[in-house]
Specification:
Elements lengths: L6 E2 L6 H8 L7 E2 L16 H5 L6 H11 L6 E4 L2 H7 L8 E5 L4 H9 L3 E5 L2 H9 L5 E5 L14 H7 L4 E4 L21 E6 L12 E5 L4 H7 L7 H12 L1 H26 L4 E4 L3 E7 H13 L2 E2 L1 E4 L11 E7 L6 H11 L1
Parallel strand pairs: 2-12, 4-5, 4-6, 6-7, 7-8
Antiparallel strand pairs: 1-13, 3-9, 8-9, 10-11, 11-14, 13-14
Length: 349
């Protein structure tokens, strides 16, 4: 099992980096590196006072979030993006050994490491539960669905995992909205050390408003609230977020749109690459897993044609493979994959 974080190139949306490495493309960049829905929730005619005045209260936002997540309002802490909770929570819990997915969103590892925790990695929930039963862990982090691998985890292991640990069990559900998966939020009333992270940016295509939620039914919500600066969640973010969370018709249409686009992208990739790489879906993204050299060829070839994707690989070689495994994550293209299909054709001839 690797003893370092999986290596990623800069965060999605870093087209400055892409331009510096690959040059400016002949067409504008198509950024498929983020996993953010290309179809964003539209809010027109935002009242002038929303831009002018500081937010008086987040009560209405919490009620909308409680209805959407099927949780109690008192369990919910609005935050300026789930990234805020990722960075702050490790500083609010006792230092100890924390288990993280060996391949996963690297900001989790950075935050726990910077807060002084000892980190161990797991490659499956079964392995995680075994580590917990052996008494080697204080805390654990799960990502469901996992970014970038697309792996999904059943909730039936969370209760036993929670019982085996003295610390927090964190479940990052930033990408779950697009999938028909049960949420860990349903377990909050009975698992007081369970912490769930949700994002408005991904499914609703509203990453720019910086809005997310931290949910906990125990003693961890208030310490996180105390870390927030006054008006951390802006008035426009609250106004737009409340409407997006309440708009059931738009949500249903968005899920159907995303499902169709995900199937279309998966089919395109499978048809283009054949059996040389496996294809997994995280709803808002599709991830290829295969030989390092092959996926690097596609990453570079697509970037040279102005299509930027997310590259990830083991930081150390594995037995029989001097470069190790690699993953290439692609978000949903807004053009139905027309430009991507053209680029892939030049790479697979």
């Amino acid at each position: 099992m690797p003893n370092k974080f999986a290596c990623e190139l800069p965060h999605g949306g870093d087209l400055t980096y892409a331009s510096a490495v690959f040059g400016e493309p002949s067409e504008p960049w198509q950024d498929l590196s983020t996993g953010i829905s290309p179809w964003g929730y539209q809010s027109e005619n935002i009242p002038a006072h929303v831009w002018r005045d500081l937010p008086a209260s987040n009560t209405m936002l919490c009620r909308a979030a409680a209805e959407y997540y099927q949780s109690a309002p008192e369990f919910i802490v609005p935050v300026p993006g789930s990234q805020f909770a990722i960075s702050q929570l490790p500083q609010l819990v006792p230092c100890g050994c924390v288990a993280l997915p060996a391949i996963g969103y690297a900001e989790h590892g950075k935050a726990w490491q910077q807060a002084g925790h000892q980190i161990v990695f797991y490659s499956s929930v079964a392995q995680l539960c075994k580590l917990a039963e052996q008494g080697e862990l204080l805390h654990a982090v799960l990502i469901n669905p996992n970014n970038p691998t697309g792996d999904v985890y059943a909730l039936n292991s969370l209760e036993s995992l929670h019982g085996a640990l003295q610390g927090v069990v964190v479940v990052d559900e930033a990408f779950i909205d697009a999938l028909a998966l049960p949420s860990a939020v349903t377990l909050l009333p009975s698992l007081p050390r369970l912490c769930v992270l949700r994002s408005v940016g991904k499914f609703f295509g509203l990453a720019g408003v910086r809005l997310g939620f931290f949910l906990n039914g125990g003693a961890f919500s208030e310490p996180l609230r105390q870390t927030l600066q006054p008006w951390s969640v802006s008035h426009p973010a609250q106004w737009i977020g409340k409407r997006a969370l309440n708009d059931r018709a738009w949500q249903d249409a968005q899920r159907l749109r995303i499902h169709r686009a995900q199937q279309q992208l998966s089919t395109l990739l499978q048809r283009s690459l054949g059996d040389e790489c496996s294809v997994a879906s995280g709803g808002l993204f599709v991830t290829l897993r295969g030989p390092w050299h092959r996926l690097m060829f596609f990453y570079q070839g697509l970037a040279e044609q102005g299509i930027y994707t997310r590259w990830c690989h083991w930081p150390e070689p594995t037995a029989g493979n001097t470069k190790g495994d690699a993953w290439l994550r692609l978000g949903l293209p807004i053009d139905g994959g027309v430009r991507l299909a053209r680029a892939l054709k030049t790479l697979t001839l």
